[in-house]
């Protein structure tokens, strides 16, 4: 099949590459010239494990192309995916200017039947808006489909190639048939392709992300209560996670969720509710708890240093919003660094993949280190913000000798309490008692 993917970011590039992997002829479009030039040279502009392998294979086989020319890309493709940004607008609702802007252009340039599929996360009713926008100028038949994407950065390729489910919202039998055929290779193990109407598909994506964010905020509240009552959240997590009604995933407390999806999607669903004369009370709390979680972590650091951190140096391990990605959008580490800098502290940071993006925010105002041990050299404390594997079993002797004092704040609970105690660290984590206080 001939496919055009408009928007070649985390979702668009993975989508395009994975469809090329199953033999389709794919062209990815972006307005970012530099990005397209890099891709045309075979350089992948994001870090996503496993993407290079299938990317190179499809490029070699001439099945995967890149362009900035929307009209040329669309002229050859029947299937058009929109993988465009839907950032929060000033009032928190999803800003549809990218989606509707491209829909307007599509209406003007399509000359034969197209299936226009929205892969971006968009509020309920967007498919109708896109349909109206395309119809303003289009003189040919087209169908609109809502096909929300559930991939997770860091495991995006696996998620796309082997999805738990594929959700397709459309009222068109013709589009349904084509999409069923397109996705069949990805669900050979029996995972479902779930067909529904466009509005339900749009809502499904927000419901999924908001539910997951709720789980995180709930566990963070339990963790905060554990700290105050002498319970240990790790034990509680195991205790409840074994209940099959609850399940053991997404129960890890931490410094709050970040990334380009959860914060904006929870906010957008809350806004959708308000626009429909409904106050989604749970989501309001989910957002408040998430913000407070970062602040509480900062307070732990400040409290230990009696609010005096001017000229103290903090080693930050982890900048990306989660491991295995270079994405730092809404990452809790960014908040913590900003707050430390505001109070006159110095920051030495290390992240396996997130440093280039972080440099764009902080420039020379923090020191970027070549490895995790350089970051702790002469630092007053180590602060763990992202649970990259390489931080899990470090050389604690090196940490002991390099740190000015053996103080560790762990926002991801990656170390064992007992061993930190034995090694003589002051160790503060989430939902567990402070060690060597
Ligand atoms: P992104 O910012 O990484 O990529 C978007 C791309 O679109 C950018 O490269 C940008 O240059 C390009 N673009 C903007 N305007 C354009 C135009 N007029 N024509 C062509 N290209 C244009 O965003 P993303 O993370 O890939 O997210 C895209 C959508 O998918 C969002 O709605 C997001 O909520 C949703 N989503 C993201 C994830 C994720 O993990 N990142 C997962 C599921 C869904």
What is this structure's SSE topology?
Layout: E1 2-6, H1 10-21, E2 25-29, H2 33-40, H3 51-60, E3 64-67, H4 70-76, E4 79-82, H5 97-109, E5 114-118, H6 126-135, E6 142-146, H7 156-161, E7 166-169, H8 173-183, E8 193-196, H9 198-229, H10 233-241, H11 262-275, H12 281-304, E9 313-317, H13 332-342, E10 346-350, H14 355-362, E11 367-368, H15 372-376, E12 381-384, H16 396-402, E13 407-410, H17 417-422, E14 426-428
Parallel strand pairs: 1-2, 1-4, 2-3, 4-5, 5-6, 7-8, 9-10, 9-12, 10-11, 12-13, 13-14
Helix pairs in contact: 1-3, 5-6, 9-11, 9-12, 11-12, 12-13
This protein binds nicotinamide-adenine-dinucleotide.
Average of per-residue pLDDT values? 97
CATH domain class name of the largest domain:
Alpha Beta
CATH architecture assignment of the largest domain = 3-Layer(aba) Sandwich
Assembly state? single chain
The computed structural class is alpha/beta
Number of strands: 14
Q: If strands are numbered along the chain, what order do they take across the biggest sheet?
A: 3-2-1-4-5-6
């Amino acid at each position: 099949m001939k496919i055009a993917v408009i928007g070649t970011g985390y979702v668009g590039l993975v989508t395009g590459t994975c469809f090329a992997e199953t033999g389709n002829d794919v062209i990815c479009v972006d307005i970012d010239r530099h990005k397209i030039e890099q891709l045309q040279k075979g350089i992948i502009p994001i870090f996503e494990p496993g993407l290079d392998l299938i990317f190179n294979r499809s490029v070699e086989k001439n099945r995967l192309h890149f362009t900035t020319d929307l009209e040329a890309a669309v002229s050859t493709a029947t299937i058009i995916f929109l993988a465009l940004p839907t950032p929060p607008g000033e009032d928190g609702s999803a800003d549809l200017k990218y989606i509707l802007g491209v829909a307007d252009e599509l209406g003007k340039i399509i000359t034969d039947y197209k299936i226009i599929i929205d892969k971006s996360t968009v509020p309920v009713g967007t498919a109708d808006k896109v349909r109206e926008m395309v119809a303003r100028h289009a003189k040919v038949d087209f169908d609109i489909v809502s096909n929300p994407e559930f991939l997770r950065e860091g495991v995006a390729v696996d998620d796309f190639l082997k999805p738990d489910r594929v959700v397709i919202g459309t009222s068109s039998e013709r589009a349904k048939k084509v999409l069923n055929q397109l996705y069949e290779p990805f669900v050979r193990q029996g995972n479902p392709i779930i067909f529904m109407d466009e509005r339900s598909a749009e809502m499904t994506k927000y419901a999924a992300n908001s539910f997951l964010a709720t789980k995180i905020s709930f566990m963070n509240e339990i963790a905060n209560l554990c700290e105050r009552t002498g319970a240990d959240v790790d034990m509680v997590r195991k205790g409840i996670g074994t209940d099959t009604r609850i399940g053991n995933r997404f129960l890890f407390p931490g410094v709050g969720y970040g990334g380009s999806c959860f914060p904006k999607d929870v906010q957008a669903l809350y806004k959708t509710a308000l626009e429909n004369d409904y106050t989604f009370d749970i989501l309001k709390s989910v957002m408040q708890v998430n913000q407070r979680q970062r602040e509480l972590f900062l307070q732990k650091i400040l409290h230990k240093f009696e609010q005096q951190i001017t000229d103290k140096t903090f080693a930050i391990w982890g900048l990306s919003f989660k491991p295995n990605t270079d994405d730092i959008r809404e990452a809790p580490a960014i908040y913590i660094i900003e707050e430390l800098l505001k109070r006159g502290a110095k920051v030495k940071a290390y992240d396996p993949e997130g440093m280039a993006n972080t440099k764009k925010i902080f420039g020379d105002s923090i020191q970027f280190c070549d490895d995790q041990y350089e970051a702790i050299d002469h630092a007053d404390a180590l602060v763990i913000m992202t649970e990259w594997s390489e931080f899990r079993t470090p050389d604690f002797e090196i940490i002991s000798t390099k740190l000015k004092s053996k103080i560790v704040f762990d926002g991801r609970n990656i170390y064992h309490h007992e061993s930190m105690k034995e090694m003589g660290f002051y160790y503060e984590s989430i939902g567990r008692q402070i060690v060597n206080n």
